[in-house]
Structures are given as structure tokens and as C-alpha cells.
Amino acid sequence: MKNIFLAFSFFCASNFLFSQHFSEKVDSLIQTKFTEDQGPGGVFLISQKGKPVYEKAFGLANLELNVPLNPDNVFEIGSMTKQFTSVSILMLEQQGKLKVTDFISNYIPDYPNGSNITIHHLLTHTSGIKDFTKIKGLSEISQKEMTPQMMVDFFKNEPVDFKPGEKFEYNNSGYIVLGYIIEKVSRETYEDFIRKNIFEKIGMIHSYYATDRKVIKDRAYGYHKKSDGFVNKSVISFSVPYASGSLMSNLDDMLKWQIALNQNLLLNQKESTKAFTKYKLNNGEEIEYGYGWHLKNINGIPTREHGGSIFGFKSMGVYIPSKDIYVLGFSNCDCNSPTQVVKDIAELSLKNLQ
């Protein structure tokens, strides 16, 4: 009995030392990029098999009030919103209300060339539609309250960049159109659809369609860095990035999201597989993108990745399906991207977590 107790004690001590050593390695990776204790910073999560093994915050959530960040803070997640838009489309397909092979003219009859552009093209960034973030008049609407139709009208008559399916080129406009289609098919606003069918269904109680007006508990404030120091982020209307980048969330909620995807709580296996398939261009060339996720690898081990960037904030998530490891990082200064740090942590986690 004594030997069993000693063995158990040794096992616990070894686990504690390993965990402490691993955390120190992760801290070191993060602190190479997030170096300012008295400036904005970031929050980071590592989970394995749905359980957090590392969760930590660095820097300040609010510079004026000198409030430190904590892992519960809510951040704008930028283009990680596209995951929620793509899953919403697949949920509607699962319900028999649309097909990803449908042409967008089925839903927006006056869309130029809409009889040649499919929902699939929009999801995979292969539509050729002009990205609205590259249009000169963007600054004129950036603070206006835009309806989805107004946003679509803003770019729909721009010359296309290429024929549908001819190449992959990351494109925010396609996800604006997808948001508009979600509204037309569901007869709900995009905000309400996401809230009712995703956030409330899986318990994402700290996730929202972004707003600067409402009081958001645990909100992290966003910043830019200028030559003379930090300034508050530029104000935009979230009706402009809309379904391409207007959601807010925190680490724990995004872990709930990942678990829901793994357990098919929102999509059946058939629809879920569509999100994580590498698709091909017209010429047969394979692209490293599914529906709302980049499909890449770390040393040959497949990953599902996506980042986000919006005024004052940057985000990045890497999921490793074979190990059920999820690494996530949010920054509340667009001067500090967590992208490479999160990738480095994911690589470290592969080597250290069993």
C-alpha cells in the first residue's frame, strides 16, 4: 500500500512539474511578442480534448483605468466571424432551405453575373467578386449604418477580379453576400440568427454581434499604436464588416464553439465534412481552404486555422484534429498580431502534449 501511495505521489509530482515547465515555455513564446505590461496585450488558451490546459492574460484591458486583462475578457474577433457565417449556411442547407451549389441569383436576382456565382464560390473565396475593403469609397461609409442590401449594392457593380472558380483570393465581400442570403432564407437578421441558433444553443453567453453602444461585461478595449504611444481604436459601424467580421467573443466561449463543432451539436457529419474539405479550382488545383477555415498543417499534421483583424483587435485560432488540441489568441491592439505566436504554441503543444 505504501509503494502504491509513493508511486501515485511521484506521478502527481511529475505531472505538476511537466505542467509548470510547459506553461513556462508557453509564457516565453508569448512574451517575445507581447512585451508591454503597461500597454494593451493579449489572452491565450490551449485546450486538449475539450479541457483547458493553459489560460493566461498579458497586458491591460483598459489603459485609462489601468485594468489588467484577464482570460474572461470579451474581444472583437474580426474574420473569425466567417466560421459562424459558413456554419450558418450549412445549418440552412441541413434544414433543406438552400444548397451550396445554388447560384446567388436565386436569392439576389439582380446581382451581376449572379447566375454563374454559387454559394460555394462565396464560401471558398473563389467568386472573383471585388473585396469591398479595397474599394476607395469605403471610408465614406465606414461610420454609416448600412443594411445588408446597402453593403451588397456598395460593391456588386465593381469589375470582377476573375471568373468564378478560377483562383482563390481571400475576399470579405463574399461573406457579406452570405450574410444577406442567411437573412433572406431564414427571415431573421444575421445577428438574431447567430444568437438564437448558435450562441444560445451551445451556451456562448459571452458572445455578441459587436457594438460600441451597449455595455458589454468584461469588454477589452481596443487600441492602435502611433509613434507617440497608444490611442483608442477608430470607430466604425459594425454593419459594414457585418457577416465577414462583426462578432465578439471570449476564450471560453470559443472553446465551447470548437467542442460543438467536434461533437456535431450544430451540424451533422455530412455538413460538417463540407466545412473541412479542401476544394479545387476549375483547373483541378487544390486550395487550402474549406468553408470558413484555412486547412493547413504543422510539420505535415493537418490543422484548421483562421485569424481576424479589425480596428483595435487581432485574433488567431489553430485546431489540430488528430490531437484534439485547440490554441487561441486574442489581442486588443492591432499593433500586436497573435498569429505567429499561436502557430508556435500549437507546434510546441504537438511536441509536449500527449
From TrEMBL:
<dbReference type="GO" id="GO:0016787">
    <property type="term" value="F:hydrolase activity"/>
</dbReference>
<keyword id="KW-0378">Hydrolase</keyword>
<dbReference type="InterPro" id="IPR001466">
    <property type="entry name" value="Beta-lactam-related"/>
</dbReference>
<dbReference type="InterPro" id="IPR012338">
    <property type="entry name" value="Beta-lactam/transpept-like"/>
</dbReference>
<protein>
    <submittedName>
        <fullName>Class A beta-lactamase-related serine hydrolase</fullName>
    </submittedName>
</protein>
<dbReference type="InterPro" id="IPR050491">
    <property type="entry name" value="AmpC-like"/>
</dbReference>
<feature type="domain" description="Beta-lactamase-related">
    <location>
        <begin position="27"/>
        <end position="335"/>
    </location>
</feature>
<dbReference type="Pfam" id="PF00144">
    <property type="entry name" value="Beta-lactamase"/>
</dbReference>
